[in-house]
Batch of 2 targets.
Target 1
Amino acid sequence: QMCIRDRYQRRVHGEGISGCKDFDGEDLEYDARNKYLKQQQKEWLKQQMLEKESKKHAEKEEENAYATQTLELNRMRGMLQDDFSTKKTEIKNSVKDENLVLAQETVSYTHLTLPTIYSV
């Protein structure tokens, strides 16, 4: 076994485990770094996919809520329009009935007053 002091001295002097010198520009951590970067890229990609899916789901929910709201508003508008039409018809019928009553009163009034006017 190699003691910690020996390991430290080898690192300081740039010697590898086999006693060979490490050369400047030599990338001994290349494989580990590439593996880490690929793993990190994979995680970012998964995260982006989840975010995209979540955004798509939220947009779909918003569209459904808008469609539901529009249908409900159209239903309410239809009900109000029907109610308005019914009341308008009732008012027209009421005015018509009142006009008939007034016409009958006018006719009966003229029958009562006509003979007296011509008899003088």
Target 2
Amino acid sequence: MSEESPLQKILEAGTYAIPKLSKVRRIVKENAKQHGELPCEVDLGEAFRFHNIFICPVTKEPATSANPPQLLTCGHVISRVALTRMARSERQKFKCHICPAQMAKDEVKEIKLQY
């Protein structure tokens, strides 16, 4: 596997995170009587931090706070500008740019990114 392989990155992240997650699991089991949940954040370090830049596959423009990414019901993502172009009204169905799924604009969800 190449060093930049996504599968290699996942394996490395899992190898790093599993001991920490096992410790949290043990603590949760010991405190099971409380029926609460413990928040668990695992910092994987700089090697596993990736940018949050989204480039719309339709408009070829980066997402911004004024043009955030939109999650289609089929799971594909486009920008708000592309969604506005594709869906003429809130209720009128439009087709995904990649797959045959059809949906209305009001079924699409906005994805929140930190810019």
